[in-house]
């Protein structure tokens, strides 16, 4: 089993992340720095990965022989033992000198490193996460260990280092399974669809709503594409979920969404776009997954001319946050439309992983600014300097300039819609972070010679 060590200065959330990964509160957590002293080990699971995790004391510069020095030596031993180092920083506090010192220590170890920007929930945290680029340890993965946000991104970051591939050749590794979750309201036909896809009665089905409780994963192959399907419990309105078992089932379904790459939202074509359907799409968009909308039970409404065109227009109107998401008619019971659905799923995964060259981005940005300049604030025009893509899966762009905090939401929507249309990014969430430069003369009085 591979070993992962969590490293960082005191009070950045190492023990909170450790507890999150082992699934129980094994490590003491407190707001005071230095609570963890000894190395603590546990068996961690994240998605389909299992590994040994080591929680370490916060790294501090200390006098030789002191308690802090002995704690530091324990941490250095954990780095030596690890196959992968998770270097944790506090996105809200920003990068401190201690982070830079210990980043150099980790870099000198020669071990693979994944940089994590913890406490990145909310706009303030996300802005601070990008300061971590200055450490030179690669792209930071923003997450919140306390709230469980960003665990899907963490899985993607560590997966290449932890999958052993002992019984796979290089060709098989290049074709690792695409993770696809099937979600929707109860009785939308999710289990029936999965059974028809794999050609076996693998999952229990019936007319009763709520038969599926656990999230079940099934490996399958579609046209030489390895696929891992996740059938999930039906998601009802939160106010209606009272039974403890149903709450656990819903939590399991939400976990499947976080670890999926593409999520198929299965709608009942006889009653599509109910309020709960829209809430489910909102949830998936907030998790940053690619979305495909499946109109199941299409055989019951196929005789209504113009219905598909009408429903696609409804999707554009009701779901602007994932504009262009494929809307695919199908029948899980009859086995119709599955190839169309899977073609859309594979294409959505490609769009979700797409990267746009910085030169092309800035050529587009110059044209967009020329066509529609940003408004002035207090008589001073907002200055946008450049844009870059900081990550994919989903596409995430950073915009740099002055006074960007004052940029109206309508203008950021204009930019996001332009990115989606120009670079062909339909149906995937697009993230846009605003980075304003600091004025070095702010707060200083003018002096005249």
Automatic annotation (TrEMBL):
It comes from the Bacteria. Keywords: GTP-binding, Nucleotide-binding, Repeat, Ribosome biogenesis. Gene3D superfamilies: 3.30.300.20, P-loop containing nucleotide triphosphate hydrolases. The keyword rRNA-binding does not apply. Associates with the 50S ribosomal subunit. GTPase that plays an essential role in the late steps of ribosome biogenesis. Belongs to the TRAFAC class TrmE-Era-EngA-EngB-Septin-like GTPase superfamily. EngA (Der) GTPase family. This is GTPase Der. It comes from Enterovirga aerilata.
């Amino acid at each position: 089993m591979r070993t992962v060590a969590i490293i960082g200065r005191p009070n950045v959330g190492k023990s909170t992340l450790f507890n999150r990964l082992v699934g129980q509160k094994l490590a003491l957590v407190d707001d005071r720095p230095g609570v963890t002293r000894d190395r603590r080990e546990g068996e961690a699971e994240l998605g389909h990965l299992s590994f040994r995790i080591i929680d370490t004391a916060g790294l501090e510069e200390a006098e030789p022989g002191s308690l802090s020095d002995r704690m530091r030596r324990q941490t250095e031993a954990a780095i030596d033992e690890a196959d992968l180092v998770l270097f944790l920083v506090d996105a809200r506090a920003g990068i401190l000198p201690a982070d830079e010192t210990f980043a150099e220590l980790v870099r000198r170890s020669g071990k693979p490193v994944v940089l994590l920007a913890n406490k990145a929930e909310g706009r303030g945290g996300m802005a601070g996460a990008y300061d971590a680029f200055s450490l030179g340890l690669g792209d930071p993965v923003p997450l919140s260990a306390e709230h469980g946000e960003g665990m899907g991104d963490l899985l993607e970051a560590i997966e290449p280092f932890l999958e052993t591939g002992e019984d796979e050749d290089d060709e098989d590794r290049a074709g690792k399974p695409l993770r696809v979750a099937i979600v929707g309201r109860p009785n939308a036909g999710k289990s029936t669809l999965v059974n028809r896809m794999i050609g076996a009665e693998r999952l229990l089905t019936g007319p009763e709503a709520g038969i599926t409780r656990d999230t079940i994963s099934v490996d399958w192959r579609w046209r030489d594409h390895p696929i891992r399907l996740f059938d999930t419990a039906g998601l009802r309105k939160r106010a209606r979920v009272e039974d403890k078992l149903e709450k656990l089932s819903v939590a399991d379904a939400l976990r499947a969404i976080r670890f999926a790459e593409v999520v198929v939202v299965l709608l009942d074509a006889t009653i599509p776009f109910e309020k709960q359907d829209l809430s489910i799409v909102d949830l998936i968009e907030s998790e940053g997954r690619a979305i495909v909308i499946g109109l199941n039970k299409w055989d019951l409404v196929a005789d209504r001319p113009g219905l598909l065109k009408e429903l696609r227009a409804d999707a554009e109107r009701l779901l602007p946050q994932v504009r262009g998401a494929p809307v695919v008619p199908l029948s899980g019971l009859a086995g119709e439309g599955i190839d169309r659905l899977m073609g859309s799923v594979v294409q959505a995964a490609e769009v979700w992983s797409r990267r746009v060259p910085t030169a092309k981005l800035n050529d587009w940005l110059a044209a967009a600014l020329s066509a529609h300049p940003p408004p002035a604030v207090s008589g001073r025009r907002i200055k946008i300097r450049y844009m870059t893509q900081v990550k994919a899966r989903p596409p995430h762009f950073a915009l740099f300039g002055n006074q960007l905090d004052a940029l109206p939401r309508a203008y950021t929507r204009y930019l996001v819609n332009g990115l989606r249309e120009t670079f062909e990014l339909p149906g995937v969430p697009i993230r846009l972070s605003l980075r304003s430069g600091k004025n070095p003369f702010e707060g200083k009085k003018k002096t005249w010679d």
